[in-house]
Design brief:
By secondary structure, the chain is mostly helical. It folds into two domains: about 5-145, no CATH class; about 160-370, MetI-like fold (Orthogonal Bundle), CATH 1.10.3720.10. The protein is built from 13 helices and two strands, in the order E-E-H-H-H-H-H-H-H-H-H-H-H-H-H. A two-stranded antiparallel ribbon has the order 1-2. The protein is flat, with a radius of gyration of 27 Å. Keywords: Cell membrane, Membrane, Plasmid, Transmembrane, Transmembrane helix, Transport. Its main location: membrane.
Amino acid sequence: MSRSNMARPAMAPWPLVMLAAPLLPFAMLDGAALYLPQIPVALALFALSVATILARRLPASALGEAVLLLVGVAAAYAAPLVLLNQGHALAQAGGLWLYLAGATLLLWRVLALLAGVTGPARLAGPALFGMALVLLWEILTRGFQVPTILLPPPSLVATAFAANAADLWDDFRQTVLISVLRGYLIGCGAGFLVAILADRVPFLARGLLPLGNLASAVPVVGIAPIMVMWFGFDWQSKAAVIVVMTFFPMLINTLAGLQSAERIQLDLMRSYGAGYWRTLAMLRLPCALPFLFNGLKINSTLALIGAIVAEFFGTPVVGMGFRISTQVARMNLDIVWATIAVAALTGSLLYGALALAERHVTAWHPSLRKR
């Protein structure tokens, strides 16, 4: 029996708090409170959400129940957006916020059901969670009329992204394709090679590990201006900052991985007459792969952070850090958030690509067999 057809636990009663929403104002129009029966569109959406809760046991599987309840959640999240587009004020609409709170608790039930299914549908959970956060951000900022200088809604950020797509692409190319990739490859490659050398010369490892702990405590805002002074305003200074930030994490993870081979495995290689380099290539490096990928994944985010911070202290008139610093000074927070979104998406994609490569390369490793 598949997990999606197993017995489903009873739903907690917390989403039913939305049933009290009709007792409170649902919107404001020209200073007058409007209740749910006075707003036909909101009433229809509310009825749809309640109907999905009542019919949740009709589907035969957990996936079917999740899809049905998701319709009710979508209706609840659509209600405030529809009302805002119609010109209603929502700051004092207690009924609407109670309805939205109940729908968010209902979404928790949907995510719990999706976590128990198998196959591609399992991946829908994280995507729905991210979409819900973005929608709540949009609803709360617009509903409570948060000043855009403090926190612009995602719709305004998307508009700024579309209007400044060419500049954002130039920033991405300068920061990621020129500075980050070069610094990342140099830093990780140097850390890996020095780790091999330190493994071969043990006293070198004993001297480098304390330096690694010391370097991890140095703030990037402290070394970035120094590197700009040493290497200039172009990509070389940003790559230097990235090398400093990524060298020691790669070194430490590689050394830890090289020590992970078991004694009985090393004895077996010696019994075959294998020397140091053959043992390194055939046993110790394969055993170290999970540690190597840990270092690569950690450095993928550190490299992007280092490049952006370094650009605050000097850069050509392009780059993510340059864009953030200049647009903050001009109070264009929508462009700042669009740049942050590009950086966050880039970091997530880099990390995800490395994690996917790790699963394919080290699928044989015991640490991945139960994932």
